[in-house]
């Protein structure tokens, strides 16, 4: 697995507690960058801008990357644009919600 | 666009309001239980009923709304609470004021001025807190309009209430007492609670149903029509124009109907097909509110509004305001406790989901019993049936106690 896959795999530990689906399958992770100097930059969103869980989820994402001990610095950028849409979910997540 | 983070409120603040409100809910239900005879005889303006009504509206519904706003405003408007320490002081002042006010209304209504002023101080502190918080919002939107107007309505309702107490004591503007009283009720219910529930529904309904791709354009028309109805109703009270009142009630019904249609549009765009049961009850409150609005309009049209307004206000408070709050509390309280206990554990270890925090299915018997109890009480008042009132109110009070118990059990998770 390359570094990006390792990060993505580890991020599956972060569950949205309302939907009980992980942030990767929900399609909340927009981008993973390694600009150099041992830094990892995660660009992500949430299902809604007023999500009351946003501090919890963002800190969970940061912890999960730091926990890998592969990077000296982890930055999580939470963005609202482009807005999340259900089309970003994996078929599994879609199935769980549409049940 | 980078998002602002770190908006979470110290969980003890909203919890203080919510736990206090549960005590007031049980207290008000118990008080109403022992006032069956007066209520059956439509004697609503007696000290014990004033006390129960204010304990229910201020102690339960208002304190719950304040607690929920301390939690929801920062996340819905993406701005932190202006001053949390001030929030705890505001809680203490308001809670003391409400208990003292309810006590005075029960034992000595003429002496309710001082506790009323203490309560007013607490509410003004809350309004200042919200004003200072909302003015920090980078980009005001239609939700700001709903919530801001709801807060202005709350302030107006409280000032009118204080004016009523002052008028009772001194005779000041006694000629307009009825108009002040009616405006106090209207702005305290349809102005404050309804606009607040409308505003937060625009945030919570899409969130709990995971709706996407809907238009928010109808929201401003909902606001404009409903606010116009409120203004027209207040003018009709002060001019004594019954035709204008009928028109105002029609406009309010239209505003509520537009809101209902918009909620339906939003729900049609939902990804989550199976909605939580408690959330369904909160949604059920919407057609209940619309029906009561239409009932008010029709009864005014046929000239019987004066005879039915007491039942309508009661049903409105219980089946629209209270049912919305009860349904949403099933979602909000587990979230608050989860945040307090597990927020920092996310990603580190396996944590329970929000559904694990509270038995959502328990909302079916509890809230069904609440609705059944309220309907029985309403019918008992209309048909003057004391036995039905007693059984209906016992069911309502029982459902309220079980509801409080369920909320407390969340804290054991």
Automatic annotation (TrEMBL), chain A:
Pfam families for the chain: FeS_assembly_P (PF01883)
Superkingdom, natural source: Bacteria
Start and end residues of each MIP18 family-like domain: 4-77
Gene3D superfamilies: Fe-S cluster assembly (FSCA)
The protein, known as: MIP18 family-like domain-containing protein
TrEMBL record, chain B:
Keywords annotated in UniProt: Membrane, Transmembrane, Transmembrane helix
Ranges that cross the membrane: 12-36, 48-73, 85-106, 112-131, 143-167, 179-200, 221-238, 244-267, 279-302, 314-340, 361-382, 388-411
Database matches in SUPFAM superfamilies: Cytochrome c oxidase subunit I-like (SSF81442)
InterPro entries documented for this protein: Cyt_c_oxase-like_su1_sf (IPR036927)
Coiled coil: none
Name of this chain's protein: Uncharacterized protein
């Amino acid at each position: 697995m390359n570094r990006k896959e390792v990060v993505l795999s580890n991020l599956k530990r972060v569950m949205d507690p309302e939907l009980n689906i992980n942030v990767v399958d929900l399609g909340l992770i927009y981008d993973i960058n390694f600009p150099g100097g041992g830094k990892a930059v995660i660009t992500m969103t949430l299902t809604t801008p007023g999500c009351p869980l946003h501090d919890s989820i963002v800190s969970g994402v940061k912890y999960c990357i730091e926990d890998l001990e592969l990077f000296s610095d982890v930055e999580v950028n939470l963005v609202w644009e482009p807005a999340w849409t259900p089309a970003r979910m994996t078929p599994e997540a879609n199935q769980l919600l549409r049940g | 666009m980078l998002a602002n983070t770190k908006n979470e409120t110290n969980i003890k603040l909203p919890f203080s309001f919510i736990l206090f409100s549960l005590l007031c809910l049980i207290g008000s239900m118990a008080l109403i239980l022992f006032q069956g005879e007066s209520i059956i005889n439509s004697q609503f303006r007696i000290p014990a009923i004033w006390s129960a009504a204010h304990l229910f509206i201020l102690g339960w519904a208002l304190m719950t709304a304040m607690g929920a706003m301390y939690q929801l405003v920062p996340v819905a408007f993406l701005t932190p609470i202006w001053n949390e320490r001030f929030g705890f002081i505001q809680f203490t002042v308001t809670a003391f004021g409400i208990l003292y006010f309810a006590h005075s209304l029960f034992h000595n209504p003429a002496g309710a001025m001082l506790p009323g002023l203490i309560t007013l101080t607490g509410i003004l502190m809350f309004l200042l807190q919200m004003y200072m918080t909302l003015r920090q919002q980078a980009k005001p939107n239609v939700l700001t309009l709903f919530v801001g107007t709801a807060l202005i309505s709350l302030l107006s309702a409280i000032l009118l209430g204080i004016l009523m107490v002052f008028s009772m004591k001194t005779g000041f503007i006694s000629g307009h007492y009825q108009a002040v009283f009616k405006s106090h009720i209207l702005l305290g219910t349809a102005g404050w609670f309804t606009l607040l529930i409308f505003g937060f529904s625009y945030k919570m309904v899409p969130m709990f149903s995971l709706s996407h791709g809907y238009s928010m354009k109808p929201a401003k028309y909902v606001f404009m029509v409903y606010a116009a109805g409120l203004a027209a109703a207040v003018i009709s009270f002060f001019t004594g124009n019954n035709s204008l009142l009928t028109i105002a009630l029609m406009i309010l019904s239209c505003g509520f109907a537009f809101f209902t249609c918009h909620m339906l549009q939003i729900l049609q765009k939902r990804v989550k097909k199976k909605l939580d049961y408690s959330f369904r009850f909160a949604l059920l409150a919407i057609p209940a509110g619309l029906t009561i609005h239409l009932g008010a309009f029709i009864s005014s049209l046929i000239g019987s509004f004066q005879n039915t307004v007491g039942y309508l206000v009661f049903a409105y408070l219980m089946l629209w305001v209270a049912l919305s709050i009860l349904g949403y509390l099933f979602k909000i309280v587990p979230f608050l406790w989860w945040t307090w206990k597990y927020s920092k554990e996310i990603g580190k270890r396996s944590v329970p989901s929000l559904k694990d925090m509270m038995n959502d299915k328990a909302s079916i018997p509890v809230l069904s019993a609440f609705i059944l109890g309220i309907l029985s009480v309403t019918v008992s008042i209309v048909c003057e049936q004391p036995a039905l009132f007693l059984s209906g109110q016992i069911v309502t009070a029982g459902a309220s106690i079980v509801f409080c118990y369920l909320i407390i059990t969340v804290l054991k998770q």
